Request: fold
Amino acid sequence: MKQLSIVTASVFAAIGVVSGQDPPKKSSSYAPVVITEPFPSVVARMKAAKPEIMKRQLALLEERYDMANRPSKGVTMSKGKAVQEGVRAKLPPGTTWDALAQMTPDAVRQKDIFPKGFLPLPHANHPEGGMLFPKFHIDEIKKQEDRDLTRFDLDFDLPDHFLPEFPAPIYLTTRPDLGDVSQGKEVTIENFFDLFNGILNPKQLEGVRLLLTPFAQQQFNQTEDRRSERISRGVACFDCHSNGHTNGAAHLVGDIRPQEFRHRIETPTLRGVNIQRLFGSQRALKTVEDFTEFEQRAAYFDGDPVIATKKGVNILDRGSQVQFMAEFQELLDFPPGPKLGIDGKLDTAKATPSELRGEALFFGKAKCAVCHPGPYYTDNSMHNLRAERFYTPRMVNGEMASADGPIKTFPLRGIKDSPPYLHDGRLLTLEDTVEFFNLILGTRLTTPEKADLLAFLRAI
Reply:
């Protein structure tokens, strides 16, 4: 018996169990299914924690960025919202953008002067995660549908002036003669039929209806494991992809574990989805039909099919519902590009000299066209920027800021309508984007060249 006790103690020691101590916790791929804390207690606890969590996130944003509302003069999105101007990522003391761009990745890392605004951007509460909507969208859906997308534990973190215009215009590939078919309205289940009847065919109308229908989701559902005070009907596809575009809603990708390595994802636009060939946060889905089905089966529930079953996953029929939804999504067009020819290049009779110089840089010295060739400015591929060459991995507000891995080449057509930029929204303006890639790609653009490249990006 004594010998057995010695062996048993050795085994426990080998797996980290010491007498009088609990074994170390191991991370799991699964979320807890059975919630033991009473829901009123969860609400009270998270409401009490919310002010400090939001204070921490807003302090991070202020540390990283110039958050002022500073619109560009004469530069607007398609429907008239002002585009924010200027580089908003703050530089470390004692350096300049030009000096930084001359340095090697190793030198930047060793001096620890990679701009913090270029590091991965964490979710407003990264350990918790979940879908988070801007207040203007929450207010409009509550007004039209009496459906509340408010979370009791969190508020959206980025100011409205850094987000896309709302409601966004809708352009259709099948009816370019109509221009914006939204009539300046946020399309919901309340008004879609009046807006689209006579423009779409019956299949497409049914697709729109499904895209606007709320279904159970991780934070908005009918169980005690939710982040809405009232039991919720759920969320709709167009709660993030507002009017087939984006309202800047944030989430965490569902296909990475553990939690601290999951990336924040800023909702991409669905405009021009018909010319894209890769979908999903890791671009493992090859058709918009795959993406549509995957979203409600998995992405709505953080990639956890166990939780999805518990909370009421909506299983779409591939042969009808999925196809109808996909058919409408593939009608969503890019905004008009009045200065572009049929090849996607600038019409020299309409473009300014600065825009033409910027186009030459885009296809030349700046190396943009390596990944973003015309006419839609995507190569439908993935590329690893390896930004981690420039900094030492670190924890930031619950996220491990480290390698992003390969990310999709997003189309740049209509790019000024879709702030913020990069997959996690860490780049607030196009000027930030130019400086980021100038550093990452080592292109060493001059100040006038950056201005010309920006003029071109605003024109496409």
About this structure: The beta strands are 71-76, 82-84, 250-252, 264-266, 382-383, 394-396, 399-401, 407-408. The chain has two domains: 63-119+338-460, 126-336.
